[in-house]
Design a protein that fits this description.
This protein is an alpha/beta fold. It contains six helices and five strands, in the order E-H-E-H-E-H-E-H-E-H-H.
């Protein structure tokens, strides 16, 4: 059984993330989408809120599990019996850091493969930071995030 992990901060999930999730789900038998609980990184959304958003967006796809982890990714995949890690690439600028992480993870466990999936070109400019910035200034994020989570995100950035 091909079991894969798509890890990330998902702070919040975007249409770009969901596109990678759906396309990954189509080529593996079981996909775990996991939020990194990282006390060193300031997040707009709690881990609970990020899990709720991921669940809302993925509940119609059988074979997708939503989870969270802390610590090293390679330890988490070992515990879960997962041997494929999927990362999305938007631009060359993503590549250098992702390449380094893939090599570090391979050093830590050579049995785990990192697969890079190219973003859908229509989302190549999109990131969670962009969504937060637009929402914070009261802009329209409806074309950037899945409809299931739109209101939840907007409510996080109240306008006076
Ligand atoms: O959505 P992001 O913030 O780009 O996701 C990054 C993530 C969570 C995939 C990455 O930071 C990660 O795997 N962190 C876990 C710690 C780890 O294993 N680091 C690699 C070895 S240094």
């Amino acid at each position: 059984m091909r079991k894969a992990l798509y890890p990330g901060s998902f702070d919040p999930i975007t249409k770009g993330h969901l596109d990678i999730i759906v396309r990954s789900h189509a080529i593996v038998d079981h996909l775990t989408v996991a939020v990194l609980e990282n006390p060193r990184k300031q997040s707009a959304f709690t881990v609970g809120e990020r899990l709720e958003m991921l669940k809302r967006c993925t509940e119609k796809y059988p074979g997708i599990e939503v989870d969270y982890f802390s610590g090293l990714l390679i330890e988490y995949v070992k515990r879960k019996g997962i041997s494929i890690v999927i990362k999305g690439l938007r631009a060359i600028s993503d590549f250098e850091f992702e390449f380094q992480m893939a090599l570090v993870n391979r050093k830590l466990n050579p049995d785990v493969e990192t697969l890079f999936m190219m973003t859908n070109s229509k989302y190549s400019y999109l990131s969670s930071s962009i969504v937060k910035e637009i929402a914070d200034f009261g802009g329209d994020i409806s074309s950037l995030v899945p409809p299931e989570v739109h209101d939840l995100i907007v409510r996080k950035f109240p306008r006076d």
